[in-house]
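Justification of computing resources. Each target in the renewal requires a structure prediction run like the one illustrated here; the chain below, 83 residues long, is used simply to show the kind of job we budget for.
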Amino acid sequence: MGTTTRYRFREYTVTTVVDPMALPTFEAVCVTGEEQDCGAASGQTHTPEELTRWIAAHCAQTGHTTYERTTRATLRAEPGEWK
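Resulting structure tokens:
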């Protein structure tokens, strides 16, 4: 004879809020290339304008035009309540 186990889950609400005390970071990697990506990376910048300047300089030096951008922000979880 088999046993049946039943689990009941309640929903827990959490809201995430960008931490105003932490600076966001922006980063880009050059992915131009047919057989392999260039791979040049901007490193972390703190404004989209800084990142755009890096991309413009890399593009001017190499002619590369395709990039992947990563944007990171520190979030704070604000717990809600169980439902």
